Amino acid sequence: MALSLIRDKRFGAFFWTQFLGAFNDNLLKFAVTLAVTYNEALRGDWSAGLLVNLIAGLFILPFVIFSATSGQLADKYDKTKVMRLAKWLEPFIVLITGLGFVLNSVELLVTAVFLLGSQAAFFGPAKYAYLPDQLKPHELVMANAVVESATFMAILLGTIAAGGLMSADAGHTVVYVVCGFGLLVALAGVWSAHRMPLTPSHSAGLIVNWNVVSETWRNVRFATQLSAVWPSLLGISWLWFVGATYLTQFPLLTKTVFNASAGVATVLLFSFTVGLGIGAFWCERLSHKRIEMGLVLVGLVVMVFSGLLLHGVLINYPSVGSQQGVLLFFSQVRNIGILLLFVAISAGVGLYSVPLYSTMQALAPKEARSRVVSANNIVNSFFMVVSAGFAIAILMGTQGQVVWVFSAVTALNAVALGLWWFKQPYVVLRAALLFKVQRRHLPQLADVDHLGEPGGHLIVFPTLLHENHLHRMAGLPLEMTVVLSGRLKSSRFVAWMRKHRFILEFTKLSEVDAQKELIRQIAAHMQEERSIAIDKPMYELLRRQYRLDDMPAVLAKKGVSMGILEFQEELKNEHAISQPIWRLSKRMLQPAQGM
Fold first, then answer.
1. In this predicted structure, what is the pLDDT of residue 16?
2. Which of 267, 281, 510, 547 is the least crowded, having the fewest Cβ atoms under 10 Å away?
C-alpha cells in the first residue's frame, strides 16, 4: 500500500518534495551549527554556546512569526502553487549559506538559518492541508504514516550527512561539498514540486490579514473553538515536546552514561526513527486504513511502559572506564535491550501521532484547513521551546544526570495518558471499540468533508441503530450520541456509555412524549455543538410531525449552527458485502417560513 501510494502522482511527487526539503533543512542547519562550534575564526568574538542556541531558536522562530500568514495564503490560493513558490526560495537560501562560508560571515550563516526556517514555515500549512484535498479518506492514515516516518528519517539523514561532509576541515571545500550537495537537493525538490497536481482553493475570497500578531492570536483562538480538532492539536504539540526532548539528549546520554563514541548516539537516533516508522505503519494496520483515535491511548501506554523499563535499566547502568565503540557497545545484551526500548518508545510515538494528524486534517473545516495547520505549527513551536527549558531545568536540578530527563518525560507521558483518559472519554470509547468491533467489517467513508464543519450535527443513518450501535460508533470517526429504540442490557461498559452520553435510550419511541423528548434532546445537542445520530425512519417521522427541517433555521437565530448529515450505504461491488461504503451528503434546507 505504501509503495503504491508513493508511485501515485497525487502523493508521490508531494512525498519527495517534503522529504528532500526536510533533508536539506537539517543538512544546512547542522552544517552551520558544526561550523560555528568548531571554527573559531568563523565565529570571532561570538560564544559557541550562544551561537548554537541562537541557531536553534532562529530556525523555530519563523514558525511563530509567519505561520498565521502562511496559513491564510495556503487557504486563499492553490496549495500546490504556494508550495512550489516556497521551494523556489530554497536554492537561493543555499547560495546565501555558501556565501556565508566563503566570506567567513557568521551573520550571513545565521541569516540563512532564519530564512530556512521561514521557508519551512510557509511550506508547512500547505503541506498538511494538501493531503486531504488530494487523497481519499481511506488513504489518509497510510499517507500520514509515510510522511511522519519519512520526515524523521530525513531529519536523521540530513544531520548525519552534515556531520560526515563537515568532518573534513578543508576551508572552502565545505562550500563546494555541503552547499553544492544542498543545491542539488533543493533543485530536485523544485522539480518534484512541479510534478504535484494543482489543488484549487476553497477560500478564494479570503482577505489576508498581514498583521502577524493579531492574525497569530486569531489563528490559535479559532483552532481552540474547534472541539473536534483542538485536542488533536494539543496532542501533536505534546508529540513534538517528547520527540525534541528525546532526540536532543541522545548525545549527552551516550557520552555521560554509556561513555560511548558518537557513533552510538547516531545508532540510537536511527533506532528512534525506525521505531517511529514501525509504530506509524502498525497504526495503519491496526486501524485498517481508518482514522482511529483510540490508538492515541495505545501509543501512550506503550511509551509509558517502555519508559518505566528504560528508567530501571539506566538508573542501574554500571560505570564504564574506557570509551566504548559502536561494535563493543552493542555486543552487550544489556545495551541491545536499551536499543529495543528506544525502538518501543518511538513505536509508541508513531502509534500516537498518526491518528492525531489524520484527525486534524479530516475534521478541520476545508476552507480553513491551512490556517488550522498554521495554528498547530505555532503551538508546536511553543512546546519545542518549552522542551528545551524543561531539559535544562532537569539537568541543572540533578547536576547533569541526563537519566532523569528521560524519566521525567515518562512521568509526564503518564500525566498525558491520565488527561486523555479523564478529559476525553470519546478517545477511551474509541480504544474500547478497538477490541469490541472487528475492523475489517467497518465501512469505507466517502465525501466526509462536512464532518469538519463547525456546530452540531444531526446524523441520519439508513437503517435501525439498536442492533448495530457499536458498529455505527466505530464506523464514523466523530464523537456522537446514538439514539436507541430500547434499553441495552446493563453492564459496566453500558453504564459508562450512559454516563458520558454516548447512547440515548428510549423504550417507547412510538409514543408522542418520547418523540417530543427526542426533539428536545436534538436541540440540546446542537446547542452544545455535539452530534446525535438517529435512523432514517425516525428522521422522516420527526420531519413530518414536528417540522424537524425547520430546526436549523430556528437555532440559527440564536447563534447555534446545526447541520443535517445523511449517510447513504452502498456496496463497493457484489463481492464486498462485508465492507460497504458510507457516502455522506448534507441536506440543504430552505429557511423556515413565518417563524
1. 92
2. 510
CA 471 to chain centre: 26
> What whole-number distance in Å separates Cα of residue 245 and Cα of residue 204?
40
Burial letters for 67-92: b for 16+ Cβ neighbours within 10 Å, e otherwise?
bbbbbbbbbbbbbbbbbbbbbbbbbe
Per-residue model confidence (pLDDT) at position 37: 67
Q: How far apart are CA 121 and CA 381, in angstroms?
A: 11
In this prediction, residue 170 carries a pLDDT of 43
| Predicted local distance difference test score (pLDDT) of residue 256 | 81
Q: Which residues pair with 583 in a beta bridge?
A: 446, 568
Query: Per-residue pLDDT tens for 125-153?
Result: 888 788 888 887 777 778 887 887 888 78
Q: State the first-to-last Cα distance of the chain, in angstroms, to the nearest integer.
A: 53
303-324 burial code (b ≥16 CB/10 A, e <16):
bbbbbebbbeebeeeeeeeeeb
Q: Exposure string (b/e) for 135-173, b if CB count within 10 Å is 16 or more?
A: bebbbbbbbbbbbbbbbbbbbbbbbbbbbebbeeeeeee
Closest by alpha carbon to 377, among 224, 199, 236? 236
466: left (phi over 0), alpha (psi -120 to 50) or beta: alpha
The residues pairing with 532 across neighbouring beta strands, listed in sequence order, are: 458, 481
Which residue is it, cell 563514541?
Answer: 261
Comparing CA positions, the residue from 421, 457, 483 lying closest to residue 294 is 421
The upper half-sphere exposure of residue 8, i.e. CA atoms within 13 Å in the direction of its Cβ, equals 13
Quick one: how far is CA 111 from the chain centroid? 29
pLDDT at 52: 67
Transcribe 345-410 into DSSP letters.
HHHHHHHHHHHHHHHHHHHS-GGGHHHHHHHHHHHHHHHHHHHHHHHHHHHHHTTT-THHHHHHHH
Chain centroid, CA 10 distance in Å: 20
Q: Reduced to 3 states, what is the DSSP secondary structure of residue 448?
A: coil
Residue 393: predicted pLDDT = 84
Residue 208 Cα to chain centre, angstroms: 25
3-class SS at 109?
helix
Tell me which residues of the chain have a pLDDT lower than 70.
Answer: 1-2, 37-43, 45-50, 52-53, 163-164, 166-175, 449, 464-465, 571-579, 588-595
Residue 592 confidence (pLDDT)? 39
CA distance 330 to 340: 11
Q: How far is CA 134 from CA 14, 26, 137, 160, 347, in A?
A: 10, 28, 10, 33, 27
User: Rounded to whole angstroms, how far apart are CA atoms 136 and 583?
Assistant: 12
Q: What is the pLDDT of residue 2?
A: 64
CB atoms within 10 A of CB 381: 22
Q: What share of the chain is helix, strand, coil (3-state, %, to 5)?
A: 70, 5, 20
DSSP H helices in 444-573: 469-475, 492-499, 512-527, 536-546, 551-556
Q: Alpha-carbon torsion 342, 345, 348, 352, what sign?
A: negative
Cα 307 to Cα 409: distance, rounded to the nearest angstrom:
8
Phi, psi of 422 (to 5 degrees): -95, -25
